Amino acid sequence: MAAPSRKQTLRFLSQLGAFILTRFGFWNCFTMLMLFAERADSKRKPDIPVPYLYVDMGAAVLCASFMSFGVKRRWFAVGAAIQLAVSTYASYVGEQVHYGDWLKVRMYSRALAIIGGFMVLASGAGEVYRQKARSRSLQSTGQVFLGVYLICMVYSLQNSKEDRMAYVEHIVGGEITLTLLEVLFGVLALAFLSGWYIRLAAQVLAVVLPLVILLIDGNLGYWHNSRKVEFWNQMKLIGHNVGIFGAVLILATDG
Q1: Whole-model pTM over 0.90
Q2: Torsion, CA 33, CA 34, CA 35, CA 38, rounded to 10
Q3: Lower Cβ count inside 10 Å, N or C end of the chain?
Q4: The total number of structural domains that make up the chain
Q5: Burial of 131 (0-12, 13-18, 19+ CB in 10 A)
């Protein structure tokens, strides 16, 4: 049996990235429901007032469903980006729940990156049989959002004690590895913001990001027990990074 060609491998990875990103809405809504159910036990409010919350989730599931089935994927990717942007803005200005500044950076930067991922998807990147020309302007805008996310990661690693300790205590090399990661994320951010060597930058990030998800985000004991991040909020953040990984896979293979 012949080994798959490079073209087939790239196509598979691109499809995998699109599969992950288009299903993000389902996981995000599920974790939000579980998070708000967890808060209900302690009589805490959700991030968004309840009547609007159901509309928000309905829109997210609708967009995710159509994207998953490949029906007007570009249009519904734009819709998903708008829905998440409105949801994030409503959560930020509503201030129904108090978050620490370091946690706000983690939450909102990842939401911004997912919005960027949807814009990359809406541009036509990752399509196996592209019937329309790719929108480079949408892709470039999405890449900028991903670059801002990487800048926020560098900022958190430099200024957030919580984030620094998560890396220093749980990765080999301690401060030296942390410094190297700051430099790496900074260089990758410049690539995404400028549009130079975007495929190479995405390929590097596609290798590093799963390690961050497994070793840092996946350390639920640290975030939940030590830093008091709600369990389902951390699961939601993990889902965000997995969705970002999907967007990065698309750019790494079809950027």
Answers
A1: yes
A2: 120
A3: N
A4: 1
A5: exposed
